[in-house]
Amino acid sequence: MSSCPVCGRTAGEFDVVCEADGASLVESSGFETVPTLRCAAAWCVNCGARFQDDGTGCCVECGERVIVRRTRSKLPAAVTSTVGDLAVLGSHGECDVLVTDSGNNRRLLVFGPEAIVAEEASALGAESRFFPSLVARGQAPGLGHFALLTLDIDDAFPVAELDLRWGAALSLVRSVLDAAEEMEARGFTWEPAESDLYVKAGGELVAVRARGARRRLHGEPLNAKRVLEALGGALLPSPAALGTPELVRLFVPSFNFSTATVRTVQAVRDDLVRVEAAIASKSHDSLAALCDPGLRRHHNEDAIAVAQGDVDGAPFAVLVVCDGVSSSSHAEEASAIASQVTRDRLAAFAREGDVTAEGASAAVVEAIRAAHVAVATAPIDYGDGTPPGTTIVAALVLRRRLTVGWVGDSRAYWLSGEGSELCTTDHSWINDAMARGGMSEAAAVASPFAHALTRCLGPLETGFDGTQDVQPDVRTRELPGAGHVVLCSDGLWNYFPSPSAIADLVQRAGEDADATAVARFLVCQALALGGGDNVSVAVLAVS
Description:
24 strands; five-stranded antiparallel sheet; alpha+beta
């Protein structure tokens, strides 16, 4: 009889790997599996759905295989007030219990399948800066195999309870990498949980156990990515979002598509050097844009394009964000074509120096229509698929006047000390339903069509006849003082749907944050909250 060392599931007679999580099976010790080892929750590698494991190993939403993410444990039924001569203080993390021995020394009692306990005990056999020492190993009725470890956390705090600033966060990350390097030198892997990591008052890291220890195969590196995921709860969204998308990806679970699942310790150290260089580099640019694939999509269907210059000493800026319609074919080509054509048309108009509101509005409308024609007539071979389509939002800032045009649900905001304003209205089913009346807001929001688009650019909208028109909306407003123009795709605003929420993010990016830092912070926030879609942001700082 075999069982899974990860989830505890009993396997079939001839199985060699667990059907639920793919882990190699181990021979059962004959003791009943501790209930807290059962798969309590899982994440789908495809759609990100979280659910109770039903035993099939596949997502109930989309059918793809899931990855086990175990939860914090409760005291197993076999543990009462004592275990042998140990007095139980309470549950600590998953599969470990706080106890005191006969000398009133606090200890950590780790339990689980024999193979897992034995590996962790072997990894703790040497003196360490970070890890505890092994006191004893054994078996207990109903509990199974256990290891008793020293515990030095009297003046330490769990990382989950720390309110870390940027510098302290990077110091913690480097300390965790030092501990990982030590474990790697011993020849073992290490996959800590958040509950395993503490920080002393003086800043020293304490790892209370060597969870996930396994003797590494020849040439196999320790996966620092799995180590740093334990810091996600403490560092996401802040302060990690003050860094770069590359930094945020170190702490999010590795079931997503745009993040490497394996990173060596040295590779992560190199990542940190690049992150610090990016943060230290103050471009003082007033215009910036950032497009990220997010965490859950196979490829990026968003596109951005910006331009700036001056006409007779007066600055102008053009910002364009497009979000390819994911249900259409070659959506990434549609968004790229539309963003570039619109930017080029508006930049050419701005250089002509027409400063009237009517002229700017007409220019934005015509630029978007030109983008539609370009997408509709582009030689895109979509075969039997759905014709390509894309949303668009474009902004022209010329002589302190903002003109915004859009088709679809990509958005534009004006954010200043006087308040925050959404300058666009989504072309979506929910807005049309609310405008027609006859449906409550709650019912409209609950509808499966709530976020369905009612307008877009490209042949998905009008077919491949480039002469057929599209109907962009356009708005113009004066910019009386300092503030930020922010354009974004729904990969950002789905997490922060109100103008005040976007304004709060811009403020939290820092008083001295330039446009590049603001754009980076907005994207990082979306990734830290799940990164469920491609994320695109364009930012203009108006002085």
